[in-house]
Amino acid sequence: MVVDILRQEHRNIEKLLLVLERELDVFARGERPDYEVVHAVIAYFQVYPDVYHHPLEDRVFEKLKVRDSAAAAKIGDLAADHRRGAERLRRVAHAVESVLADQEFLRQTVNDIIRDFIEQERRHMAMEERVFLPAAISALKSADWDEIASRLADQSDPLFSEAVEERFEIVRKYILQLEQEAEAERSTHR
Ligand SMILES: [Fe+2]
């Protein structure tokens, strides 16, 4: 169940990466991307992974270290990977602000920074799907999963409550809706 949640979250993250990638393609063609969409995706990534997704992965990883330290060692420092992702996101936000402020920032640099973020996020999630989650599935005992899941069910913990996840779902839908509108708008002007 916890693994299903993490996999679903990866699919949700990928949907938003696709949105960002589409807007980046617009930018790369020399056109103006929809900055409302771009900002919304950045804002989502500034909050969601650290508040919701990574803490859950960290708990699974802590259990993996106990149950199979060799497998955990192969994965390395998951928390550091997540921090590097947050750092890349800060570069993305800064690059976008620079473009909007008409600062001297090479378009190619902006393009590279955002592509790098998208690519590294995908690579990181692929590693988690291929290495981390399978290792956790084979090493963790059902009591471990129960313990992790019990926190999910604990409504008194605001971070892991379903209500919070529902709110994120609303935000995701809103962003996807904005993106559809941006795409529709662009196709009428082509
Ligand atoms: Fe993840």
Explain the overall architecture.
The protein is mostly helical and 190 residues long. The chain has a single domain, classed as Up-down Bundle (Four Helix Bundle (Hemerythrin (Met), subunit A)), CATH 1.20.120.520. It has helices spanning 2-28, 35-67, 69-75, 78-100, 107-139, 142-153, 162-188. Helix 1 (2-28) runs antiparallel to helix 2, helix 1 (2-28) packs parallel to helix 7 (162-188) and helix 4 (78-100) runs antiparallel to helix 5. The protein starts with a helix and ends with a helix. Fe (ii) ion is lined by residues 10, 53, 57, 125, 128.
Layout of strands and helices, then pairs:
Layout: H1 2-28, H2 35-67, H3 69-75, H4 78-100, H5 107-139, H6 142-153, H7 162-188
Helix pairs in contact: 1-2, 1-5, 1-7, 2-3, 2-4, 2-5, 2-7, 4-5
Bound molecules: fe (ii) ion.
Fe (ii) ion binds next to helix 2 and helix 5.
**CATH first level:** Mainly Alpha
Give the strand content: under 5%
Q: Tell me the span between the first and last alpha carbons.
A: 45 Å
Largest sheet: none
CATH architecture: Up-down Bundle
Question: Helix count, per DSSP?
Answer: 7
Backbone structural class:
mainly alpha
Q: How many domains, in number, for the residues?
A: 1
Name the CATH superfamily classification. nmb1532 protein domain like
List the ligand species: fe (ii) ion
Radius of gyration: 18 Å
Number of strands: 0
The residue ranges in which pLDDT falls below 50 over 5 or more consecutive positions are none
Q: Which of globular, elongated, flat, extended, rod-shaped describes the shape? A: elongated
Q: Which range best describes the helical content: under 10%, 10-25%, 25-40%, 40-55%, 55-70% or over 70%?
A: over 70%
Give the mean pLDDT. 91
Q: Can you tell me the CATH topology?
A: Four Helix Bundle (Hemerythrin (Met), subunit A)
Order of helices and strands: HHHHHHH
